[in-house]
Amino acid sequence: MKVILLSGGSGKRLWPLSNEVRSKQFLKIFKKEDGSHESMAQRMYRMIREVDDSAAVTIATSENQVPSIKAQLGDSVGISIEPCRRDTFPAIVLAAAYLHDQQGVDENETVIVCPVDPYVESDYFRMLEKLSEQASKGEANLVLMGVEPTYPSEKYGYIIPKSNDPVAMVKTFKEKPDEAAAEEYIEQGALWNSGVFAFKLSYVLGIAKKVFGSSDYQWLFDHYSTLPKISFDYAVVEKEERIQVMRFKGQWKDLGTWNTLTEAMSDEVAGNAVIADCANTHVINELHIPLVALGVTDLAIAATPDGILVIDKKKSDNLKDYVVDQRPMVEKRDWGLYKVLDYGIKPEGKSFLTKHLVIKPGQHISYQRHQNRSEIWTIVDGTILDGEVRSVGQGEVAFIRQGVKHAIKADTELHFIEVQVGDELTEEDVERFDFDWSSID
Amino acid sequence: MKVILLSGGSGKRLWPLSNEVRSKQFLKIFKKEDGSHESMAQRMYRMIREVDDSAAVTIATSENQVPSIKAQLGDSVGISIEPCRRDTFPAIVLAAAYLHDQQGVDENETVIVCPVDPYVESDYFRMLEKLSEQASKGEANLVLMGVEPTYPSEKYGYIIPKSNDPVAMVKTFKEKPDEAAAEEYIEQGALWNSGVFAFKLSYVLGIAKKVFGSSDYQWLFDHYSTLPKISFDYAVVEKEERIQVMRFKGQWKDLGTWNTLTEAMSDEVAGNAVIADCANTHVINELHIPLVALGVTDLAIAATPDGILVIDKKKSDNLKDYVVDQRPMVEKRDWGLYKVLDYGIKPEGKSFLTKHLVIKPGQHISYQRHQNRSEIWTIVDGTILDGEVRSVGQGEVAFIRQGVKHAIKADTELHFIEVQVGDELTEEDVERFDFDWSSID
After folding, report:
1. Contacting B residues, span 37-56, partner chain A, CB-CB under 8 Å
2. Angle between the B122-136 and B40-51 helix axes, to the nearest 10 degrees?
3. Is the N end or the C end of chain B the one with fewer CB atoms within 10 Å?
């Protein structure tokens, strides 16, 4: 089978674990049988391949998740990169065009679209195969997976089918209802909308041609920022008349809040933490300082470079209202990662910011220049470029004055401390230049 | 009146706020009428002076608290510095000798000894005066303050007086009893031992002469590390037959645990934190990252450079069992302070450690040398010494190689980032040298 996994940003509902650049789906919180840990993305991919070892998986995502995907899944998956965030309709159209134009998938083939972050078991993946088979038959343009409700949830959308058969035509959709309405829908045989559906590639490419005037991958990629911010549900699913739903009765959990995420964690503690005399409490500590939780009940506690959260699990749904926007303090890049250690912003005059950077062996940062800041690098080991090419060892210093072009390449894993000093310290203050890296190998 | 305030270390019961070098008594958590905040030490000193504006206060403490005392109380208090930690008997003897030999207090004068950390009101300080007057009469060698119990506490020691008169001779002492025993003592008219007592200077100096062979300040200071680790209660109070107790019926709280400390906090939040939909919850955040507490009840939450704590207030007494020893991450010194930002310890080869240091205007660190590490300093503004004397400005770098003597002096408030690189990174690896600082003014 062919699967498109939608890997979006997870926003504020899992702060401080997720933000615009770090996503919950890459956090290794699930224990495997051999005792090692895997992330949501790894678990999803592994289980798809366990059901169908020839499955082709493509991840639809933004540029900033690519390093995490490559680090966790290697080169075994296709990646359809969204140049900017545009909601699921443009994302699915782009991924479909990617499969057709870049991967050579025939337009009569069936594709399954599925979020990357539900917590599910093998029966879910076997259902994906059935969904694909049903879509191949051509009885409908779209085949949805509907989950049999276990309680009248107010958090999910509902699909109301025309019958209670295992496969049925869809009568209508209902957005997140209140509890009374949800109970009524369930009596009518309604199902939760899991966000999973199957279609023939030609169907979505046809819609693209009609709506955008093109289904060409390169055209869609180049014009991506001009496409409307609209969901696939709203733009396609709810307007389609030839649409079926298949009933799924199995475990299906949304890991989108602290409550549901911690429910799926295999250990109570991840990171440097002690919990004592606690009940139903989970701790994730990504900081290097110790965390102690003593005598507490029903809490999720998380400490990361972006912030600290102590929340009653039952209140998880309200978190997004209390989290403020801020500069991310850790960022993963193709070449490695950086962590902001400290900063001081002065109302007048110069500010400073201190980073710890790690560059992977053989990798380098781009050859670049800053208008509004100088940087002082304290090096551990590697090859450095600052006007001239030279080698530096541990404990050496490079002073990169404002306006001077510079880069750095790692021979072995390279750690360095960067202190930025200047009038304005932003990630945007950077000009990039070409450089022939092979000349210094 | 003459008051000796005992300012000890507060150990692990208030971790991560207190450790071997930072003490709760200097944390500004109490709101004054004008809206500004004061620490326990400041509040105690202010209230003593409000009752008696000619009161002479001496603080008995260790070297590492001196910068905090000077910063918060100025030069208006005497400081008896304990060269090392030796419990309250040596500490009180040393402070008594300090008053006699260094401050010229007559040995017939009365002195009151009192812990720096109870949370009390004006009536407590008026009681100190009465205690001093009673001790002056010479009816007893020691006059204690006994607090009328409000419940059968298992946390305090009990004084059993011979009568229920306002001033009574002491019959006996009982160590922390269980609840049933405490109830029995209270029926007999027992009082809590507040750790407050008054005596004539000659009494304690006489004991010193008898036990140590000397009551000379310099001799005691020089031989301090050889004196026994023993409490004044055990060495003196419980053996004294000519001893009285005065009844005190007023507010008296021990701020030694998170439960009692937060009870006395005027605001629910100190630092960068948001609390929402919480009850009876207090947050102290000394980190620069934000903290969010949502929907929780009866918690004390603290985040400092040393660690993060989430504790049910009722479980406060158990905390010390779960806190591990670790290197302090922030340290205040006479010249300013430093904060450890980051460190990496390598099993083989060189390690690194990054600090942010702040030096107060006109201050300098000692002229020093390290055997096992190099340091790289990135400077904001100041005068620097590294072999030669030179001036440096913001963004400049000083590379101090292993074994080279160095120092730094601040013209204006000086911030710099220090990266240590070496085989062994310890605070102990330092040789200090004399330098004529007036030569570079």
Report:
1. none
2. 60
3. C
State the pLDDT confidence band at A22, using cuts at 50, 70 and 90: low
**What average pLDDT does range A148-159 have in this prediction?**
91
For A259, the token pair is 């409550």
Is residue B18 predicted with pLDDT exceeding 80? Answer: no
Helix B66-73 vs helix B40-51: crossing angle, to nearest 10:
50
Interface membership of A296 toward B (CB under 8 Å): yes
- What span, in angstroms and rounded, lies between the C-alpha atoms of A205 and A211? 10
Cα–Cα distance for residue pair B402/B375, rounded to 1 Å:
8
Find the mean pLDDT for residues A156-180: 94
Number of Cβ atoms within 10 Å of the Cβ of A264: 14
Q: Provide the ipTM.
A: 0.74
A106-126 pLDDT, tens digit per residue, is 999 999 999 998 889 999 999
pLDDT of residue A349 exceeding 60, the answer is no
Give the integer Cα–Cα distance in Å for A125 and A131: 10
More confident residue, B244 or A335: B244
Distance CA A11, CA A19 (A): 6
Chain A, 76 to 95: residues with Cβ < 8 Å from chain B are none
> Hey, are the CB atoms on A307 and B289 less than 8 Å from each other?
yes
Residues of B in contact with A301 (CB under 8 A): 310
Residue of A nearest to B314 (CA): A295
Please identify which residue in the block is written with the tokens 């400041």. B42
Note whether B403 contacts A: Cβ–Cβ < 8 A: no
Alpha-carbon distance of B296 to B284, in angstroms, equals: 15
Run of H or E including B124: helix B122-136
Q: Which residues contact B406 (CB under 8 A, 6 or more apart)?
A: B367, B368, B369, B375, B384, B385, B386, B387, B398, B400
Q: Which amino acid would we find at residue A317?
A: D
- In whole angstroms, what separates CA B352 from the centre of its chain? 31
Is the pTM for the entire model greater than 0.80? no
Question: Nearest-CA residue of chain B relative to A295?
Answer: B312
CA-wise closest residue to A26 among A13, A35, A34, A17: A17
Distance from CA of A157 to the nearest CA of B (A): 26
Flag whether pLDDT at A71 surpasses 90.
no
Q: Is the dihedral of CA A46, A48, A50, A54 positive or negative?
A: negative
Per-residue pLDDT, B313: 95
Which of A309, A314, A397 lies at the smallest CB-CB distance from B376?
A397
Q: Is the pLDDT of residue A21 over 80?
A: no
User: How does residue B296 score in pLDDT terms, banded at 50, 70 and 90?
Assistant: very high
Per-residue model confidence (pLDDT) at position B402: 85
Q: Which tokens sit at B123?
A: 């009536």
The per-residue pLDDT for range B338-358, each reduced to its tens digit, is 888 877 666 555 677 888 888
Report the residue from A299, A326, A341 with minimal CB separation from B342: A341
Q: Which residue in chain A has the smallest CA separation from B341?
A: A341
Average pLDDT of the residues of chain A: 88
Q: Is B293 part of the contact surface with chain A (CB cutoff 8 Å)?
A: yes
Alpha helices in A238-366 (DSSP H): 258-264
